[in-house]
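Per your request, structure below.
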């Protein structure tokens, strides 16, 4: 059984619009190699953007809600600046 990707879904990369065949997923692995949780995210990607390389930053904030709230933001042109401290 394959992963379900809605027919209306499009690649999440801004301006791409290709039909996606990949789903981003994260998981919390246990030491016995199983996973406590592993939600597929509603973050779909075409082959080019799924396998062409990426730069991923994860900010993990523990809570007491018993739920995982995952936000995925795709930035193709992040604004970044590094300045010396004087
Ligand atoms: Zn794409």
């Amino acid at each position: 059984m394959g992963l379900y990707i809605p027919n209306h879904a499009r690649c999440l990369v801004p301006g791409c619009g290709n039909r996606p065949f990949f789903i981003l997923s994260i998981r919390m692995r246990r030491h016995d190699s199983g996973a406590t949780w592993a939600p597929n995210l509603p973050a779909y990607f075409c082959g080019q953007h799924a396998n062409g390389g990426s730069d991923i930053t994860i900010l993990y904030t523990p809570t007491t809600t018993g739920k995982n709230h995952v936000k995925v933001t795709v930035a193709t042109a992040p604004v970044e600046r590094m300045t010396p401290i004087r």
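The chain has a mean pLDDT of 90.

Regards,
D.
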